[in-house]
User: Fold these one by one.
Assistant:
Number 1:
Amino acid sequence: MDAAHSPLAEGFSLARGGLVDRLCDRFGPPGHERRRVVHGAVLAASIAWLPLLILSLFEGLAYGTEVKVPFLRDFAVNVRFLVALPILILAGPMIDWWWRRLVLEFPRSRLVSPVELPAFEAVIERITQLRDRLLPDALLILAAFTPLLLVRTELLMSEVSNWHVASTGHLSLAGWWFDLVSTPLFRFLLLRWLWKKVLWTLLLWRVSRIPLHLAPAHTDLAAGLGFLSEGQRAFSPIVFAGGVVLAGQVVNAIVYEGATIRSVQYIFIAYALLAVVLLVAPLLVVTPVLFKVKKRACLEYGALVTRHDQLFDAKWIHGQRSPEDTILGNPDASSLADLGASFAVVQQMRIVPIDRPALIALAVAAGLPLVPVLLFVTPANELIGDVLKMLA
């Protein structure tokens, strides 16, 4: 069976499309994707952070002792807009490259045959149409502003005077910009990635409804769908960006509110678990298909192994020959071992196509921002002592 060729799959993209893509096209030639993305990241960071610096300097809230948390010493806000926000934009091309590669893998690995190719391309076309609609972006913008009606304080920073509020007791100019521009912009970019994950999940679900040529004995232990795990691992930069935001909040709480690393450690654990669950969730849509394939394959391969073992016993134990040898292969020890190994693979087959390295990569990306926090709050003598204990 020849591999199917799909021009639509070759041009597939989820990172493109929508309001953001139309705006980014204004800051770089369409053919220069990397330059366009870099310019967009610099512009977004400048819009979110630079006015906060200028306005807080103008009001005397950028540094000094007028408030306990001046702007330049607000770890959470600075890492959010100077580190996490650019990552949300710069990670786009890499993630999009992985998604395109995974989509191309379906026809390339013959999971989708030429007969099913029209149905496969119809799925791609439908997802692309959803990607290009402006309504989802409009709803995301609305969702980005909605929390302003519910929460007016930073996470873990509720009782400390800071640059958000001027000496008059009212919201400062920088505080207004933070609430009305910087924070909604960051939320929008984060929610936009969640929307892209929804589109990816929908694509996988629709593709799983196509008759795929799955191989239960595939050594990836996922009937040939193990490559989908790489798509989840590609999301590590987004997970890392979320961890950076959380780390900044934790440092603020430790420095300005007397929190300890032990009192906030469960926040990082909860975030790591939540990130892994959210990123593995899209793969659950193919679980029903894999479950049916595994259930059927266990019966079929089990019957084949039984018949082969019967022939092996008849040939080598009882000295008999069977005309079925030409159908099942020679019932010798080598074929017995090969067939037994295939049956073992079928029994070990996962109904969720995610592997341990992908889970570890996501967990590391979520927890890596905690390392600078630990270095920041741990006294040098204790840190050196801990290192020496580990080397001893």
Number 2:
Amino acid sequence: MSVVKPIVQTMTATVAARTLRSGAALAAAGLIDPAEAAAADAAARTLPIAITPEIAALIDVTDADDPIARQFVPDPRELERRDEERTDPIGDGANSPLSGIVHRYPDRVLLMPAMTCPVYCRFCFRRDGVGPEGGTLSEAELDAALDYIRSHDEIREVILSGGDPLMLSPRRLGAIVAALDAMARIEIIRIHTRVPVADPGRITDKLIAALGAGTALYVVLHCNHPRELAPAAREAVRALVDSGIPMLSQTVLLKGVNDDADTMEALMRALVRNRIKPYYLHHADLARGTGHFRTTIAAGRALMGSLRGRISGLCQPSYVLDVPGGFGKARLGPIDLEDAGADTFRVTDWRGGTHDYPAAAGDAKAD
């Protein structure tokens, strides 16, 4: 019996042809005013346009501030550049010994077999590398990347990223998973993707079979707003989880999309209802032309603090920032404990109240 409903499976063949890829197409679909088409195309020169039918259907065209549109419809502000912004904001290049590999931490490595995506998020931190021209690794490049992983004994975890690895055919994706599964030293395979939300018809029986591995394999869904978990997306997620694949989530904190407590609470609850464990809430990176998306860190920490009393620990992501230059992630808090002196800590509860807590003997300060 199929684990994916036929109505979902039939969507895949026509999605690429119906994906909106130009200012004129956005105007024809009613997502922008025809007078804005030229500006959209100008912004698209910094990052291609791609909005699948599933994402387009989520946009409320009567709302000028629609949070789904904000993520995917080009904005003229993308042409603005701030001094602190970078073409490679998280330092992939500094940690890339060969094509398709980013080795930032000793025990884990990014393998990026494809640099194409079903949709292009306007806040993308790899906006200078992804797109239809990004392509996929050649057979020789992929072999070299896999050999690199085999030759580094410290690597225990491989993260398939890009681009979106679920844009690969089930045959090619399955070959990569099988190659990693054959490496006895690899303990975890992660696949980071937008596909279940943006193009759920790709989650077919064949694709799920391609993810079969003896190695622990996780699918990490990029999802930023509760409306993205539409019925077809929930069905795709259900198919993955019912097949035995655990799922986590990654969310980017975005001004005007999810930077209020009500929306973030609704998103985290929706994820957990669909058996997806919230993993990371990313502070928006310093990618070129994305300043209109970034909140302050203080606002992000206040938002995380407000969630403590609203949702359980199961629903809580870790709020993190990628340190510019390729130095990895830093946790941003909020911090609930501070040194109050006299062998005492001061703890802040979820209501904002403060309480003294005695330091353990091993924590006592030297005289």
Number 3:
Amino acid sequence: MREWLWTFLAVISILLIVMVGVTLGELLNDIAGGRMPVGLMGVLMFLKLPDVLSTIIPIGIFVSIIWGLGRIYRDQEMAVMRSSGFGWKMMLRPLFNLLLPISALLLAIDLFLAPKASDVAQLRLEEAFKTAAEWGFQAGQFHVLSGGDLVLYVESVEKDGRTLRNIFIQQRNEEREQVWIAERGYYWLNQETAERYLTLENGQITEGGIGTLDFGVLTFSRNDIRLPEPERRNREVSLEARPSSEIMFSSNIEEIAEMQWRLSPAIAIIVLGLLAIPLSHSSPREGRGGRIVLGILTYVVYANVLYTCRSWLSKGDMPPWLGIWWVHLFGLVIALVWLHRQGRIVGKG
């Protein structure tokens, strides 16, 4: 139990660092693409942790059991235990003492915590798109609004986060096109109408017809331009953010697939834990790395089949009663048969 627990904590720590780095890269990509404000990065990193834990805990517990038992086999402790009458069934008690609490924790994360975190993250993003003070403009980047009819570029933003320097705007209206250039500007929000405005100072407007030479130039000391509403995300709650209580007894095929998927990690921990016992069996001179590689390959196949069945189920290509349950059942049968066969080979027990 102690061998497995400490190894599990070490593996989880390493995987958590890796997954946090991957999540951070995805968030930075969204920031660079203008799909997320910088101010929300820390909050969204925290809100994505339940999904990250749901991903790494099953493989973490699987690898830790193989690693811990592999050391016992390699140091020939298992040979002494076997000769003293220790059978594979005696491993089940410490194994389930470890698996059941972690499985219950993962079940709570997937059924309650992860959907709530996803809903809060979606809500915060929507609020960021609606709040000009939080969204603002990112310096050195072209912002395409109104389906390409308005393009805005800001060279720099001062420390107050509100004052803009060297602004370029290209605006298209039916058959006319305007190019705005200003030295300075700032944006503000009309509290009564909730409309966003950009005030420009010391600038110039070049206006002309599309495909003609009819151009005019106008200079100004101050000019206000109303900005279109930023692209709003659909407030309709995504399936991943729906509470489990709403979709648990649903007849909708996509909601059935989502509910089965939320239950899968907790079940997979039990199946993988039982598979880890025969997978960890090795000869005294056999290295530990080979069994770990075999275990990771087993996990990859198991996870990919689950993903594939989830896709088939959500598309209606697989009956709901079969769903992804057969994958867990098949893995459980393989684990029990393998354990029984191994017990007969090395001794009764």
